[in-house]
Structures are given as C-alpha cells and as structure tokens.
C-alpha cells in the first residue's frame, strides 16, 4: 500500500506550484487532484499546465482525480451542487458532462482513477436517485474517451455503505467500476474493517481521515477513534495494494502531516 495526499486540503484555494512544492516537502509522491474550482479550474489552462509541469518536476504522480461535486466552492453558501443522481435531467447531464471533462484532463496527467459520489438532492426518492445515478455512470462509461480510467464510487452516506455499493456495482466489470472506501465515512455508518472485507477485490481506492464516529471531521489519522493499524492490517489481509489517500481539512501547522509520521500511525 502507498500513501497519497489529496489536494482537498487546499479546497478553497487555486492549486498552484507552491502547493505542489509543499506536498513534496512533506514527502508525498502521489496525489489526488480535487477536480473542481477553484482548486482545479478547467477554464484556467495556463495554471493547469503549470501544475502538471510542477508535479512532473517534483516526481509526483497525480494518481487520481475527484469528480466535481459543485460548480465552484468559493461561491458558498450560494454554490450549486452537482448531482449525478439528480431527477432534473438538465442538472444530471451537466454533472455527467463535467465528469467527462475531468476524464479528458486525467489522460494528460496519466491518472487512472476517477472518484465520484452518490449524493442526494433534498427530498429525493432513494430508488429513483439510484436509477438516475446508474444512468449517469452508463453514459460516462459509454462516452469515456480515455480507456484505462476506472470509476471509484465513494461511500458517502447511509445509502452507500459497503454492502449497498457492492450490490450496486455488481453488474459492472471490475475493470471499469470499483469502490473508493472513505474510512472516515465508514466510521460513521459501519465498522471500517468490516467494510474493507465486504468490498474485497472491488476495493480500488481509499480516502483517509479520522473522526469521532459522529461527524465527518476530516481529521489527521490519530486524532479520532479509528484504529488505523487494524484498518491497514485488514486491508493487507484482503490483498489491497492500492493507495491510502489522505483527505483532510487544512491544519494550522504542517507538523503532523509529514508522510513518514502518517505512515507510522497507519503501521505501513
């Protein structure tokens, strides 16, 4: 297993060379790029090229991208969320289109995994939302211009626990669709180690953050109640050899973010 760093850490900032240099200084060699503005703004081609060059110069691989969840987070609280499960066809198609734009960009970065969410609009009917979500995934797979890129569906709520995701992806080939297990989310809705076992060979990606089992706090591992050594031991037992992608909120200090310190907490 390898440790990576998500640029979710800089979610309110336009990603640039200074951020990449900081990630390099912490000892990370792989990242997940947060595929939405202002972090990654598809309109800012010059900045994207600058980030790409800086990653290459520093020997850092953009292993994965997170698919867009909103138009632009800086517009909070008025920002509009994007739902692949939307019952509004126009909104659903916009979300699909934005994910396809990210997939096109991923090939330039030699990235292989796109993380997406099954999120719910207020008042949504669960069964209909899942139907809409499946329709979106089918279109993304059909129109995906870059073969070799896999979709990793993330567990985000009580409707996407490991068992429910396994039921949902059963009809999709493993070469196309798998699960991104967010261990922080799993800690809120199920047992993280049990979730790893349930996902088994369909586990292709992970997100790491800690919490108290009640709120999605995105804390540094070790600051919540997750038993991280047990988690990584379980992942090893099922043969998982992918990324452990750190996805945390910004800290006042970089002191505890060094890759070697996180690895010690994880026991890897």
The named CATH superfamily:
Divalent-metal-dependent TIM barrel enzymes
Sheet with the most strands, sense and barrel status: 8 strands, parallel, barrel
Q: What share of the residues does DSSP label as strand, in percent?
A: 15-25%
Uncertain stretches of 5 or more adjacent residues: none
Query: How many structural domains can be distinguished in the coordinates?
Result: 1
Helix content: 25-40%
Total number of helical segments? 9
> What strand line-up does the widest sheet have?
1-2-3-4-5-6-7-8
Shape, per Cα inertia axes: globular
Number of strands: 8
Gyration radius, in Å: 17 Å
Mean pLDDT: 94
Q: Any idea of the CATH topology?
A: TIM Barrel
**What is the CATH architecture assignment?**
Alpha-Beta Barrel
The SSE string, one letter per element, is EHEHEHEHEHEHHEHEH
Q: What structural class do helix, strand and pairing data support?
A: alpha/beta
Distance between the termini: 8 Å
| CATH class assignment | Alpha Beta
Compile the SSE list and pairings:
Blueprint: E1 2-6, H1 17-25, E2 30-34, H2 45-57, E3 61-66, H3 89-109, E4 113-117, H4 126-143, E5 150-154, H5 162-169, E6 177-182, H6 183-189, H7 192-199, E7 203-208, H8 228-237, E8 243-246, H9 259-266
Parallel strand pairs: 1-2, 1-8, 2-3, 3-4, 4-5, 5-6, 6-7, 7-8
Pfam families: AP_endonuc_2 (PF01261)
Domain Xylose isomerase-like TIM barrel: 20-252
Organism: Candidatus Schekmanbacteria bacterium RIFCSPLOWO2_12_FULL_38_15
